[in-house]
Design a protein that fits this description.
By secondary structure, the chain is an alpha+beta fold. The protein has a single domain, classed as Nuclear Transport Factor 2, Chain: A (Roll). The chain is 34% helix and 35% strand. The protein is built from six helices and seven strands. Strands 1, 2, 3, 4, 5, 6 and 7 form a seven-stranded mixed sheet that branches.
């Protein structure tokens, strides 16, 4: 039996996204995304403790936007670059929390990856909010320590560079937030 996008729950969609990234399956990743999806990368040092994770999930803590990836095509360009840059792509010790007030799902996990070109391990801790509408991801806000990634010295591709510039725009915009992840 095939599950149609509208019939999938937010949790099923988010779980499918994580499985597809770990499997490095671009078609499966794309199938979870709305055409107008957005992915925000939020710097936060709060992801390393259960209390910090709980604060992010309850919106008692904020992050700082360091990249704003706009649209399914750009998310796919970022994701396919991630596939080339890292092996394996695994999150360990992960858990899920369902939002009581929206179609949001929170993923907490510890990345266990290796940067292919440099042979450097990359281990970060994550809290990712998935906002899902009608069985498709419309927004992801990934909270992690951005300095851990920056230390790797991995050169951004075009999509990543545009996302970095959009984050700068959020910092100076009177209407966009650089800290809310929304």
């Amino acid at each position: 039996m095939t599950i149609t996008p509208a019939a999938r729950t937010a949790l099923e969609t988010a779980e499918e996204f994580i499985r597809a990234v770990e499997a490095k399956d671009p078609d499966a990743v794309q199938a979870t995304l709305s055409p107008h999806a957005r992915q925000l990368f939020m710097h936060s040092g709060r992801t390393t403790t259960e209390a910090g994770e709980a604060d992010l999930i309850a919106d008692r803590a904020k992050g700082f936007c360091v990249a704003d990836v706009d649209g399914r095509d750009e998310i796919m360009a970022y994701t396919e670059a991630l596939f080339r840059k890292s092996t394996p792509l695994i999150w360990r010790d992960h858990s899920w929390t369902l939002s009581q007030t929206s179609e949001a799902v929170y993923f907490c996990g510890r990345g266990d990856m290796l940067v292919t070109s440099k042979g450097k391990p990359y281990r970060n801790t994550y809290v990712t909010r998935f906002d899902v509408h009608e069985g498709r991801i419309v927004e992801m806000a990934e909270y992690a320590n951005a300095f851990e990634y920056a230390r790797l010295g991995v050169r951004p591709n075009g999509a990543e560079f545009r996302a970095l510039l959009r984050a700068v725009r959020r910092m100076i915009s009177p209407t966009l937030s650089a800290t809310s992840g929304r």
